[in-house]
Structure formats: C-alpha cells, structure tokens
Design goal:
Radius of gyration: 18 Å
Distance between the termini: 40 Å
Strand order of the largest sheet: 1-2-3
Helix content: 25-40%
Structural class: alpha+beta
Number of domains: 2
Number of strands: 3
Number of helices: 4
Length: 173
C-alpha cells in the first residue's frame, strides 16, 4: 500500500453491477478485504456506502469488483487521519435524516434506503440498505426509507425512555 496512488473518493461515480462477463477473482481474498472494510465502517462512515455496494458481489467477485475494493483502500491511505469526533458537552436533541435513491441497483432496479440518527451533534445510528421491494417511483422509494428510519427512531425513543429522556417531537428530514 505504500507505493499505491491515493484516491480522493472511496467510490467511482459510475454504478457497480454484477459484471457477468468479467474475469473472476479469488473469492476468499475478496471476502477478507470486505470484512476488514466492514469492521472499519463503525468509525469511518464515509466508506460505508462504497463498502456495502462492493459487499453485494461477494458470491461472484470479478476483477472489476476487486478494483473498486482496492480503490476504497487507496482512499483510506490518504484519509487515515479522518474519523468521528464526539464532544462531551453537546445537547441531547434527537434528530433523524432519511433518503433514498430510485432504482439505484443496476442488477435488479431496487432502491437503496439511507438513514441517520443524531443525538445532539453525535451520530448514534445510521443505515444504508437495499430495499426489499422494487419501488415504482422516487416518492415510493423515499416513503419506504422514511418508514425504516421512523422504526429506528421509535426504537431509540423507547430505549432513551428507560434513561428518563422523553421525546415528544422528533424532527425527521
């Protein structure tokens, strides 16, 4: 890794697909690389989306997929000083964000839901998941994503109630 060229972004702008005609690569090595990246996503959410997109192709990885995984490692090489910072005297306000793309996966035209929950200025929960259903419109994809985000917020609200933090109004964006 010392001799590789650094990257400024973890993923290329083009979407990754199954690449059925591509040259297969070693499945075990690919899975180990993905496992290492998944471990890092706990403290590096900036690589989460790219890692999870590459993780979809663990069953039949090709050289194209391996190239994208190596790109993430090259991005990490130049951004090793980045990470999350949690200041101790931040406010305790619960805020949620939700978004979705429409038909983002080239293989099956399913959308991807993204959600993020903040407690004050601190990120406490986030998700990026391919939706189970195929949305017929952007609005439908966003409603499915909003539902998943709302379910997470309701669970968090219940858990925070155990610590006697009561939230009547939780903004969702």
């Amino acid at each position: 890794m010392d001799d590789c060229v650094s990257m400024s972004t973890p993923m290329a702008t083009e979407r990754l697909d199954a690449d059925l005609q591509g040259t297969p690569t070693d499945q075990t090595t690919y899975r180990r690389m993905i496992g290492g990246l998944m471990y890092l996503t706990a403290s590096r959410p900036d690589i989460a989306f790219a890692t999870f997109v590459c993780a979809r192709y663990q069953a039949h990885p090709t050289v194209k997929h391996l190239k994208e995984v190596k790109r993430i490692f090259r991005y990490l090489r130049q951004s090793y000083k980045m990470g999350l910072w949690y200041p101790k005297d931040s406010k305790f306000k619960l805020i949620a964000y939700s978004d979705a793309d429409h038909a983002g996966c080239k293989d099956d035209c399913k959308s991807t839901s993204e959600g993020l929950q903040l407690l004050g200025e601190n990120i406490v929960s986030w998700s990026s998941k391919k939706q189970d259903c195929t949305a017929m419109s952007t609005t439908e994809a966003k409603y499915v994503s909003l539902f998943a985000c709302c379910a997470q917020v309701m669970w968090m609200r219940t858990k925070l109630l155990d610590y006697e933090y009561k939230y009547n109004k939780i903004p969702m964006y």
